[in-house]
Amino acid sequence: MCRLAAYLGPDITLQQFLFEPDHSLYKQSWEPRELKYTKFNADGYGFGWFSQDGIPSAYTSILPIWSDRNLPSLARTLTNSLWLAEVRSATAGNPVHQYNTAPFCDDQLVFVHNGFIRNFHLQVLPRISPILAPVIAADIHGNTDSEYLFACMRQMLLDDEDLDLTGALQKLFEWLEKRITDEEALLNIIVSDGNRLYASRHGFNHECASLYYTTDDELFPGAQLIASERFSEDSFWQPVPEHHLLILDRDNPPELLAL
After folding, report:
1. Which of 20, 74, 227, 228 could form a disulfide with 5 if both were Cys (CB 3.0 to 4.6 A apart)?
2. DSSP readout, 50-95?
3. Is the pTM here over 0.85, yes or no?
4. How far apart are CA 173 and CA 156, in angstroms?
């Protein structure tokens, strides 16, 4: 289990996004309020963004977010209009390694996942591997369920050029539901193409993990945010309904779709 956050709006520094809220993602790494199964997110962290040419980038570390001496200077100087970030609590079978640390990127998308699939390596991975084209499989460097979920979603986009990210996530969850019977799966995902944020609060055979969003946080005027836990007690932070997909667009109000 991890904690996630994403920002879409006017340019801000990484510091404002990661550090400045009362209950920031930085603080959630050691003082989460709604985290199940563990007390800390100390198994690495990462953040992703899109450069001016529209290409995704990510910075990841296996250090706890509070131990990376490079982060304060990076956070103070990096500025962007879209951020995704994760602080990690590794699950059994997914060791602490930079290859296992989100965000995961290709040349178009940035992807983070909070959750797990129980018995993933025995029950689900053998069904994912055969469907992956070499061009997708070659990009997999770690062994987490998260990275394979990203690969599976990328494969669906590759197979159907008319599929958008909404359809790809819906198709991914439908594919998983047919193959996960009694196992628990928590599937809070945030993915971005640089223009929109797509976030799911979903799962099978388990209560969904927490996820919230806002379009009215006073610390972020004109912006929209998503986080595993509210950045503040402001009443404008709303829970994403269970088994729903949230879409945030720069020019349109939030959209919620049932999964």
Report:
1. 227
2. E-TTS-EEEEEESS-GGG-TTHHHHHHH-EEEEEEEEE--PPTTS-
3. yes
4. 11
Task: Put residue 44 in one of left, alpha, beta given phi > 0 → left and psi -120 to 50 → alpha.
Answer: left
Active site residue 208: no
Domain segments of the chain as ranges:
3-258
List Cα–Cα distances, 244 to 247, 256, 259, in angstroms: 10, 6, 5
What is the rounded CA–CA span in Å between residue 90 and residue 128? 21
Q: By percentage, how much of the chain surpasses pLDDT 90?
A: 92
pLDDT above 80: residue 99: yes
CATH architecture group of domain 3-258: 4-Layer Sandwich (3.60)
User: Which residues does residue 188 pair with via DSSP β-bridges, in sequence order?
Assistant: 114
d(CA 19, CA 204): 33
Rounded Cα distance, 67 and 137, in Å: 32
Comparing CA positions, the residue from 96, 86, 84, 89 lying closest to residue 41 is 89
Could you report the per-residue pLDDT of 63-75, keeping only the tens digit for each? 999 999 999 999 9
Neighbours of 95 (CB within 10 A): 13
Amino acid 93: pLDDT: 79
